[in-house]
Input
Amino acid sequence: MNLPFKISVLVFVRDECGRQLMIRRAKEPNKDMWSPIGGKLEMAEGESPFECAARETREETSLDVSEGDFHLFAMVSERAYEGGKHWLMFLFDCKKRINVLPADIGEGRFGLFEMDEIKSGKLRIPDTDRILLWDAWEKYGESGFVAMRADCLGGVKFHVQEVIAH
Output
């Protein structure tokens, strides 16, 4: 399947109480759904996933971070997400905590959520996030690593390709 390939990061940021920061996206992909912050790598600049995670976190939350403030806990390769693109996503846990809810931005508005709210099914969350990403964060977010492959044609099917547990 000849589709464009995009490379992105998602950053899992928490507040001092452990609640997850999420953005209700104002733009595609995942418009009107809640997801972690993030964005696409500046590939023409040769930006690394760690540089992208730091840049996106600073831009979206104003949190003062550097590349050392992140733990890469997952890599997810998605085939044919929403039938339109292939994605390679790097998932990071931000070691620094926010202490105020960021102001709304052009990308969307922010909210803080407990894990039970996220997993309850009451929030509009992309299927791949619900099926793959939040479980990966719970298992590997603070330590460890997982590489996964998701096939999004005809539903989401995935398999784990490598796990490094700490």
User: Anything to note?
Assistant: The chain has three helices and nine strands. The first helix runs from residue 49 to 61.
